[in-house]
Amino acid sequence: MTKVLGIDIGGTHLRWGIVEDKNVLCVEKIKSKDIDDFVEYISKIALDHPEIDVISIGIPGIVNNHKIMNVPNVEKLNVYDLKDQIEERTKKLVLIHRDVRLLFAYDLERLSLEDKPYVLAFYLGTGIGNVIKVEGQIVKGRHGFSAELGHIPITGNDKICGCGKVGCAETIVSGKALLELFHSKKLSGDFSDIFIQHKNHPLIHEFIEAFARIIAIEMNILDATTLIIGGGVANMIGFPQGKLNRLLASHLRSEELIAGLNIHYVDDSPMNSMIGASLIAKEYINENSHR
Ligand SMILES: [Zn+2]
User: Fold this and answer.
1) How far is the CA of 150 from the centre of ligand 1 (A)?
2) pLDDT in tens, 174-191
3) What is the whole-number distance in angstroms between the Cα of residue 162 and the centre of ligand 1?
4) Segment 19-41 mean pLDDT
5) What confidence tier does 289 reach under pLDDT thresholds 50, 70, 90?
6) How far is the CA of 69 from the centre of ligand 1 (A)?
7) Which pLDDT score, from 0 to 100, does residue 27 have?
8) Which residues contact 182 (CB under 8 A, 6 or more apart)?
């Protein structure tokens, strides 16, 4: 049975685990900023665990065919040939994907959506994570920059995004934007209760409406109706799923889209990405062993 070293590197933490089948055998977590050299750090874990067959890594940035193109929030992870360097040291197969691909693999499996040709996923966390599957294929784009939904420009929005551009969706729809709103408008109570304490506040309505609009943009372009919605913000207590569903339906182009709308809200456990890393690795091995 394949043993996979799953590694999920986020803006703040790196989490790794050894996964066999769907069992996560051990998990550890470290602050991403405490890692000086990712090649060395990951190679050491692999060499300390010789039972591992594959190393499956998710990163918070852009990946093109397992090469790292751009990681805005973890400077030292901008190692274009990370895969080759770790493979050289460990002699193990290394796979690198965008972090949301790990979650998506896990969600497709647990929701039994693997055979659905059209699925869109929206993970609303610190930013907006998006995965597009159309005609049975995950859309990656010419350079790996597809599905950067958080960075579509929004009319009337002149905020500067972490990516350096002006007006990106993420500056108004994201956990970061919600936290800023909470502080700048001096909303009462705890941030974690914002959707309960302020459920009728016009600013919360605007936030959900903005999220609905960007989802509707993607649905109207792609004519896809099966959605996965998750991430830290969508899992906050009192998150208004019903309101989001209604607002979303109000922006859809056709009756077919509205009638077919099938939204799966998913929980947000750190184990999800570990199991997803293992699923992606097994899929890769299966595909490549038949060639
Ligand atoms: Zn941006």
Assistant:
1) 6
2) 999 999 999 999 999 999
3) 6
4) 91
5) confident
6) 16
7) 85
8) 191, 194
186's enclosing H/E stretch is none
At residue 103, φ and ψ (nearest 5 deg) are -65, -40
How many angstroms does the Cα of residue 152 sit away from the middle of ligand 1? 7
CA distances from 35 to 30, 38, 69, 75, 85 (A): 8, 6, 19, 11, 16
DSSP 8-state secondary structure symbol assigned to residue 247: H
How many Å lie between the centroid of ligand 1 and the Cα of residue 144?
Answer: 16
Domains of the chain: 3-99+269-289 (3.30.420.40), 112-265 (3.30.420.40)
Average pLDDT for the chain: 95
Residue type, 169: A
Q: How far is the CA of 151 from the centre of ligand 1 (A)?
A: 4
Q: What pLDDT, on a 0 to 100 scale, did the predictor assign at position 291?
A: 62
pLDDT at 207 over 90: yes
Ligand 1 centroid from CA 43, angstroms = 32
Residue 143 has pLDDT above 80, yes or no: yes
Ligand 1 centroid to 128 CA: how many Å?
10
Amino acid present at 70: N
Give pTM, 2 decimals.
0.94
- Ligand 1 centroid to Cα of residue 135, in Å, is 27
What are the pLDDT digits (tens) for 44-65? 999 999 999 999 999 999 999 9
Residues 6+ apart with CB under 8 A from 16: 5, 6, 7, 8, 27, 28, 42, 45
Residue 232 Cα to ligand 1 midpoint, Å, equals: 19
Q: Which residue has the higher pLDDT, 126 or 131?
A: 131
Query: 5 alpha carbon to ligand 1 midpoint, in Å?
Result: 31
Task: Please give the structure tokens belonging to residue 224.
Answer: 């896809």
